[in-house]
Each structure stands twice: as structure tokens, then as C-alpha cells.
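Q: Got a minute? One more chain.
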Amino acid sequence: MKQLLLLPAACLALCLSAQQKKGIPGAQSRFTLVNDAKEEVSVELGGSLISGSQTIFGVKSEPEGPQSFRSIFQVQSEEYARYGLSTEAQWDSLYRAQNPQASAYKKQQAQGNCPLNKIVFGWNPYWISSTQYNNYDYTLLSDLSYFSYEVNPSTGGYTTIHNWLTSGAVTNAQNAGCRVNLCATLFSNHTTFLNNATARQNFISTMISLIQQRNANGVNIDFEGMSASNSAAFTQFMIDLCNQMHAAIPGSQVSIALPAVDWSNIFDVAAMNPYVDLFIIMGYDYHWKNSANAGPVSPLNHGNNWPTIDCSKSVVYYLNDGVSPSKLCLGVPYYGYDWPTTSNAINATTTGAGTAVVYYNAVPNSQTYGYQWNSPSSTPYYMYQNPGWRQTWYDDEYSLAAKYDMVNFLDIAGIGIWALGYDDGYTACWNAIQDKFTTCAQPQPCSGTFRDLGGPGNYYDNEDWTYTIAPPNASQVTLSFSSFSIENSWDFMYIYDGPSTTSPLIGTYTGTNSPGTVTSTGSALTVRFTSDINTVDQGWSATWSCVQNNLPANLSVTAGNCPVIGVTLNWTNSGNGWFVDVSDDPNFSYFWNKDVSNLTSTVCPGSFCDYPNCNTYLKFEPGTTYYWRIWNGSTQTYGGSFTTPVCAYTDNNCSGTIDDSGGPSGAYAGNEDWTYTIAPTNAASVTISFSAFDLELNYDSLYIYDGASTNAPLIGGYTGMNSPGSITSSGGALTLHFISDPFVENAGFSAAWSCTPLTTSLDETGANSLPAVYPNPSSGTFALLLPGAGQYDLDVYNTLGELVYTGRSMSTGALIDLRTQAKGVYLLRIRSGEREHSLKLLIQ
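A: Always. Here it is, folded:
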């Protein structure tokens, strides 16, 4: 009988400490112990590599022998399955035992407000501990794929989904706004599954249900080891899965993991491309666990030392095979392999199977044994003796950044990471993502190198891509070639004077007809390269530089004068590639944007469009504070904030005229926003009559309200030549509100108004014959003295013309209680027969 024993952390750490005297921290070894019942117990410890069959403290290590290719997904799935652990608490315990230094690891800090502009897809294996997944910078992760749903090929159900329904990693990702999917794995018995329609449908139904249970976003398919005979059935399975998943969960995502090299032509990506949302190349294991030679696990290029298949070639292959660039991601490794080798020579023969070493162990090991860099492959490595030679090839932030540059160069969708958590305690890999794939990316410098995709080696067949050199704030770009050799008359380079292939063509080059030195007339150069289906050459090597303007400075604001609430923004140092951003949010979480290349001022608002979609134009609101900056996509200079004025006017005359701001013969201005209240003293009503009316249709408008403010009832809104004509208020005031946009100004309007006074025919021959009120102002209670006995009707109106009090007095006095009303001015109307008088009351 065999069973797995989870030893206490202290005991495991003791074993680990003993191992580290024999090898390197970070590798895996398997041990066999005998428990008290004399039963065999298997234990695997991470932390060192032990060569050969050895015994340490009675623990025997068993090296693995060579076997057919298995990817890192399969290798590690099988290794961790041997532990037999089932809960996250157990994986936490094992992780702490294997990594006693983990307590010193620092939790990753969010990198700030740096939205991603590429997909960053990361696999989260079920064995990753909470210590690790709580350290992810989820702000730099677009997609988390939980690994995995292990497919039962006979039924389509699962043998296990591990902790999918409870994993804290899934919860963390969803709380951070990441998409989440469940990865399904199948490493054998593909024909059994794919030829069974019932099993296929059961898988699809079960997967949809599991995604819905966690309110997740989709599924990632990782089927490895299939044969060419499975191709058609697998393609149809993927189409069925996509159709049903998208129908059941609108907006869901179906993705697939592709091998770095599709040796058997299994994956008909052209047929799947209309249905599958994302294709992720597993851009690693170019040298794998049982490779005959030690070398780069994920080479960017091949040079002269390595096989001609590398990450660049894999991307070009799948693009040519029919995957849309917007759907293609390059998977990158946060691990490497440690092999025993015959010597310390590059490309040395291996003498045994390699062992996976993750980033957080490879980094300190390289510091101990000496960090080395392989230029042809753009990857790091280190070597040591224990007792014979060993070589470890892996990826770090520098090699990853080089691959990220290639992703940007070819403008594909993004990257995938195997595996999240393998960089635990280090921020460098997150920083590389931020520097290459976010709005906080480091700006393109004013110089650089430009080489073919083959790097030091030959370029590839069937290439077709464009590359634009457009540094921020540049006024000119120069590209100089030091070597140039492509297949004559079959492979071509085209260079354009501008930011795209629609710009003027400078020249077409083939063979050894080098472009030499090429200089743009503006701020950008664009290169397009095409190669045919066979015969390649060394390619080219070139450098580029630019003439760059200074950063904008001396930012200032010239405020408009009422009725215009717009401003003029000013600065010095002009150049290409600059934009002005304006927002009422000081953090610029959203903003309106305008290209100001080669300008030193701009009127605002005016052609400022919401970023990045340009669905609406900026319109200022009165009495609002705005913030602004000059920005080139990565660098910004901030100006001072400004507050728009409130432009409001009141006229108490009983008659008058009003024109737009341009007067009777001129046009009004852009960016106007003002109110004009006509409230004659003691008016019963106001009538306004328009003699001319011409506004920009649907963009500039006049609104008229029946009262003393824009809170009064709206009589109507008028635009174009739809004149209001003649309008009479129901009370003693009218309010006009005019708004113009920044673009077109028409002739405007002219109007005249008059009022009907309140009837005041109460005897006004003497002071004692007039009604009086006191105290006035008051806190809301007024005493009213009337000129004589009789019947008096009393009405009180607010400034909106609304009746707030009514009463009747049969004597020479009355008490008016307005304590429930708001502070402000009120109008008291006193009527006796045909006689009427008005008084103003003030509550304060």
C-alpha cells in the first residue's frame, strides 16, 4: 500500500535544510519513507536538486528517466498530483515548508492607476498557496485562468476541479475586475473523448454550469498530446463549445492553449478563428525536461547556437496560419529547467532529466552562481557543479521585457503567464508588465535598434508586418542600416515617410540594396517587411534616432468674460504628439482630449472629445472646477485648475430690450452659458416678444422659464429658427437661459419686453391709508395693519410665482405665519373689492 504523508512544516524544513547542503534551492526531489506500519510513503520536497539515487536521513531520492515530450503543464500537473493534497490550507502548509523564507516575502503593491492596453492572461495552478495568490498585483492582470478541470475522457465530466468553487484566487480576481475562466486539461485518451458525442456534450454542459456557479467569464482549453487523426473532431468540438458557451453566457470568453510548434498539424486555427476568442501560444519548452541539450526554455531568437524555432517564429507561424493578431497571445514562462550536463559549454549535452526551477528560486541562485546572459536567445542562465556540471536556463524580467517588445512590435493581443505565483515576493515581473503594457509605459526613447525578427539568425518565411517609429514629441526620425541582406526580388522592405503605410513611400528595397540612411520629413517613419514561402537570409541591422522637442512648459489659463465661460489654455515649447486633457476629476480617471501638436494655445472647450472612444464633446458647467494637463501618452505636465463663472443677470424694469451677446447686428460667441431674469418691481405679469431668432440648430439653445429662476416651470426650449414668438408669464417674472457650443455661432436673437403692473388702487393719498407689515424682515411671522375695517383677501407668492399662503381678514389687522417657508423674498397681494396692493416680505 502507498500513501502520501504531509509532514509538519518543521520536519519538512529540516529535510530541506539537509538537502540544501547537497544542491540548489528551488528544484524538486521525490522521497520514499517507511512509516511505523512499514508502509511506503511518498513525499516530494521543493528546495534542491539531488543527482542520482541518494539517501539523506533515510530518505531515498529517485531520479526520473527519459520519456516522450510532456509540456510543463502536464509535467507539473503530474508532479503535484502525487502529493494528494486537497485543501488550500494543505498547499499553504507545503509551500511554507518548502520555502521557509516565504515569511519574508513582501506583498505586491498595486502599481497605481495604470490601465492595461494589452491582455495579461495568467494561469493560477491549484497548488498555488494563498500566500502566493494574495501577492498578485491584480491591477496588472486582465484574465485569471484557474488550473484545472481534469477531464474524464469517458464521460466528459471531471475527475477533479480541485478548489474551483471556493478558491480565494478566483474571488480576488473578480473583486479586482479581472476576467476569470476555468482551464480544462486532457493529456491522454483524446480519441475516447472526441469520438463520443455524449461525452463532448456533457463536458460543455458541465463547464457552463461551473462557470455560472462562480459567476465567471469562460473556459480555457488545454488538450495536449493529440494526434493528427483528432484534428477534425477537435475543431468541431471547439466550435460547438464556443457556440454554446457564448449563447448561455453572453460576453463569455473561450480560449485555447496552443503548442509552441504544431508538429502534427492538429490545430486548424483558421477554422476555429471565427469562434474562439483567444489563442495563447505556450511560448516555452523549446528546451524541455528531457531535452538532449541544455538551452533556453523560451528563446526570443535562435542565432547560430539554437534550432530555428523560437518565440518570434511561433508567433509568425500562427499569424500566417490564420489567427487574428487581436486574438493571439504569447505565453511566457516564470520558470526554467536545471539539467545535468557533460560540461559548461553552451548547448552541452544533458546527462539526465531537467528539473523545473521557478523564478523566485532561480533569481537568488543566479546571484550565488553567477548571472549570465545569452544574446542570441535573449535569455539568462547560470552554471554550477554538483558534483558534475549543471546548467539552469530560465526567464527573468529582462528576457520577458524583450518578448513583450516583440508582442508590441507585431501588435498581437498580449501575453499569457505560466504560472502566476512563481515570482512570489518579487515585483520585477509586474514592473515589466507595467512598463510595456499600460498607459504608464515608459515613453519610447529618442534612439533605438531595429532588426529583423530572426535577431542574430535568419528571418522567417511568410512574414508580413509593419513597424512605426514615432517617438513622443519628435520632429524628425532618422533610420540608418549597417547591414542588409534579404532574398532578392522575393522578399521586400518598404519605408514610408509617416505614421502608416498610407504615408508617402520613400523606397522599396530587396536583395542587398540597403536603404542606407533614411530621414523623415515629419515625426515618424513606417517600415513594412514581407517574405515569401521559402528561402530566407540574414536580414538587417539598423539604428534609429530622432530630433525631439522640449517638454511643454509655462502652462497658464486665460479666463473668458461672462457671458462666455470658456477659457484659453496656453503653454510654451511646442511639438508633435502632444495632447491637452481636461477633466473635473483631479485624478484624470476620465477626461476629454484634444491633439495640440505644434500649438502653444487652444480654446477650451472646443473639439475636446472624451478619451478614448470620442463619443461626446466637452461642455463646461458654470461654477465648476476643472483640471488640465499636456500629455503625450506617457509623460504629462500639469497646469493649474480653474473654475468657470456663474453668469446671471436680473432686470427689475417694467420694459426693455434684450439681444444676444453679439448685439443687434453681430453673432453671439461660443461657449456661452448665462441666465437673464426679468422681474419688474410690482409686476403682475411679463410679456417678451422676439423680433429675430437664429441659433445653430440642435447645438445652441434658449430656454424660457415661467418664474424668477431656472427652477421655475419650463415654458419651452428653442433652437435653429424656431422663434419663441411672444410669451407672457403667469406671474411677475420670466427667466431666459442661453447656451452655445464652441463650434458655430449664428446671428442670435432680439426681443423686447413689457410688464403689467399690479393694481394698487387702495387709497394711497396718505400714509395711514396704506397697508403696513411689521416686523419686516422677520423670522417668518408678520403682523399686517390694514387701512380700515372691511374684507381683505391675502395671498403670498414665492419668487417662482407659487402661491404659498392665502387668507382673509374682516378687521383692520391680521397675522401671517410663514415659518414653514424657506428664507427669501415673498410677495404679499392684498385685495379689497376692485382695489389691490402689494408688499414684499423678507424671511431671514
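A: The chain is about 15% helix and 35% strand.
Q: Perfect, thanks.
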